[in-house]
Amino acid sequence: MRRHLRLLLALAFVFLAWPVLAAEPVRVFAAASLRESMTAAGAAFTKSTGTPVTFSFAGSNAIARQIEQGAPADVVVTADAEWMDWLAERRLIQAPTRKTLLGNTLVLIAPAGAATKLTIRKGFPLAQTLGGGHLALADPAVPAGRYGRAALGSLGVWDSVAGKTAPAADVRAALAYVARGEAPLGVVYATDAKAEPKVRTVAVFPASSHDKIVYPGAVVTGTKNPQAAAFLRFLQGAQAKAIFRDAGFNPL
Description:
The protein is an alpha/beta fold. It has eleven helices and eleven strands.
């Protein structure tokens, strides 16, 4: 009798756990600047639904091209509208699911122990402050690199530093250059600076100096994962917004 009872209990456990064990993970391709906050949001979604979430983080250009080349993805979140438009033009996202999720701010950073002081304004002495060093800046194909170059150009200082940049594959690589002391200054998002204790924010770029920084998300065309749309909706909910807000993003 006891043996039969144990067997029944074991079968009941397997039956109840089956939806969780069998759940297909939601595969999310997201901009590098979302690494910590998106991972936390994924963990919260899994805790709530039992559905696991896996992530691939890189520059928005890289994740967009990976999806174009057939990389398996269910949801994509980029750090600008342009790369999401690029995906939409190729019908690689389900257009009705596209939502603008977050906003961010562009900042100038220095190593945490540096005494650098600068006020960002027209013609500010960025090149002089760099001295013989280089400005860490993401590649122009990456949203952070494009925002940064636009800001520096509108402020009239790009020409003076164009030959003094330390090119980075994405915004997190630019952040790492400064964190390791390999560059005295860098241009990143405010959320990146907040996530890295080895850097500090020197100054904030005026919002008027560059296009508005937005993070759109969408379900990828062809996904058969029924939880893909559910995860995107979760990112727009109160729990996820609190996570993003704590990380320094502006939930929209």
